[in-house]
Design goal:
Belongs to the major facilitator superfamily. Sugar transporter (TC 2.A.1.1) family. This is Major facilitator, sugar transporter-like. The chain crosses the membrane at residues 39-57, 64-85, 91-108, 120-142, 148-171, 233-257, 269-291, 298-322, 334-358, 370-391, 397-418. It comes from Dillenia turbinata. Helices cover 76% and strands 0% of the residues. The chain is globular, with a radius of gyration of 22 Å. The protein has 445 residues and is an all-alpha fold. The chain has a single domain (26-443), classed as MFS general substrate transporter like domains (Growth Hormone, Chain: A).
């Protein structure tokens, strides 16, 4: 928004006014990129503290802290009168993201029945996509409110945080967390309430056994470095890295910039990003239905083929038709928007939700919070957000071929190294998955 750029990034606004000089470079500014990416850097740092809170006090307090940080960050961002206040707001928002991303996937994986584990876990990604869609709607709605529309845009982030704050007071702690902290009776009653039946002996005993094994591990970070922990650690880390190297966050963060680059006006580009938000939500719903029916590997493999083709096609159109100055004709510009929507569609029912699901299914209880606190996703998100506009300035259309090449590598990784985890309880992963896999069995004693 021009009002926002004039107040905090005047040099970018000046460059934007002379955009005909270079389509690909008009938003290339390290400080502007840092505004977007810094949130994820702070999320990365705070996730280590969140891991400790999650381990000692449980999932519910961690979600509560996440909500408080996010409320404070939203208020600070909306009230910002200088760059320092804006940065402090981003720090608080980043802490909210770090605590939330640590606790919420764990909470969902620990309350879900095994047969519906994938679908319940994907609710996390579903509501992320709903949040993105609502954010795009808000941006589109307030873009004509001058000169303080940007304050509404940043401040309204507190609305979902308020809902989560209230929810964090209502929800119960997970049975796994309670039992792990020696609240056995309370853990059993919670399990009965969640399942809606009194006969939970088998599942309760399973959690107790896993908890006893976890208690023997005094230093989960050291446990992560053992050979037997390498399969889930490598898969968890690589899955998170690949999730970002699809290019999805570059597309979602900078969709308005991308659409303006190919010739859409400001309002039209914001509306186009609303459309991609709708696609994102709808196709995440598809994954909830499909993930426990067709499995994780099938969804990931077919999406690699589809995303590779769509990214390559976008790159080919821009390489052939978008010059350094000027813009695309209407027909190819619309084609780029359609291809972006297809790319988002393919990602939303595969790597988006499953990228969060697989680590929660593969890490054993004793290293689960430590594994999540690696926070690889936050690091990669920070890096992509920080460098994308600069990469687009230097690589131009070849940026899309860059992501397409990574998607090809991702497909090979899934084909040869990623086992299917559908319907397999966490305590049976070693016997049923790792010991039978041609590569990972070498790590298991």
């Amino acid at each position: 928004m021009d009002d926002f750029l004039i107040k905090f990034f005047p040099s970018v606004h000046e460059k934007k006014q002379h955009s005909k000089e270079n389509n690909y470079c008009k938003y290339d500014d390290q400080y502007l990129q840092l505004f977007t990416s810094s949130l994820y850097l702070y999320a990365l740092v705070s996730s280590f503290g969140a891991s400790k809170v999650c381990y000692i006090w449980g999932r519910k307090p961690t979600i509560l802290f996440a909500s408080v940080f996010f409320l404070a960050g939203s208020a600070m961002s909306a009230a910002a009168i200088n760059i320092i206040m804006l940065v402090v707001g981003r720090i608080l928002l980043g802490m909210g993201v770090g605590f939330g991303n640590e606790a919420v996937p764990l909470f969902l994986s620990e309350i879900a029945p095994v047969q519906h584990g994938g679908a319940v876990n994907i609710l996390f990604q579903l509501f992320v996509t709903i949040g993105i869609f609502i954010a795009n709607l808000v941006n589109y709605g307030v873009s004509t409110v001058h000169p303080w529309g940007w304050r509404l845009s940043l401040g309204l982030a507190g609305a979902p945080a308020a809902v989560r704050f209230i929810g964090s007071l209502i929800i119960m702690e997970t049975p796994t967390s309670l039992i792990k902290r020696n609240y056995f009776e309370k853990g059993r009653k919670t399990l009965e309430k969640i399942r809606g039946v009194r006969d939970v002996d088998a599942e309760f005993d399973q959690i107790v056994t896993a908890s006893e094994l976890a208690h023997k591990v005094k230093h989960p970070w050291n446990e992560l470095m053992k050979p037997s922990s390498m399969p889930p650690l490598i898969i968890g880390v690589v899955t998170q890295v690949f999730q970002q190297l699809t290019g999805i966050n570059a597309v979602m963060f900078y969709a308005p910039v991308l659409f303006q680059t190919v010739g859409f006006k400001s309002d039209a580009s914001l509306l186009s990003s609303v459309i991609t938000g709708i696609v994102n939500v709808a196709c995440t719903l598809v994954s909830i239905y499909a993930v426990d029916k067709v499995g994780r590997r099938v969804l990931l493999l077919q999406a690699c083929v589809q995303m590779f083709l769509s990214q390559t096609a976008i790159g080919a159109i821009l390489l052939a038709l978008l010059k350094t100055t000027g813009s695309l004709d209407k027909a190819p510009a619309i084609m780029v928007v359609l291809l972006v929507c297809l790319f988002v569609m393919f990602f939303a029912w595969s790597w988006g939700p499953i990228g969060w699901l697989i680590p929660s299914e593969t890490f054993p209880l004793e290293t689960r919070t430590a594994g999540f606190a690696v926070a690889v996703s936050m690091l990669c998100t920070f890096l992509i957000a920080q460098v994308f506009l600069s990469m687009m300035c230097h690589l131009k259309a070849f940026i899309f071929f860059f992501f397409a090449a990574w998607i090809f590598i991702m497909g090979l990784f899934v084909l040869f190294l990623l086992p299917e985890t559908k319907g397999i309880p966490i305590d049976e992963m070693i016997e049923r998955v790792w010991k039978k896999h041609p590569v990972w069995k070498r790590f298991i004693d």
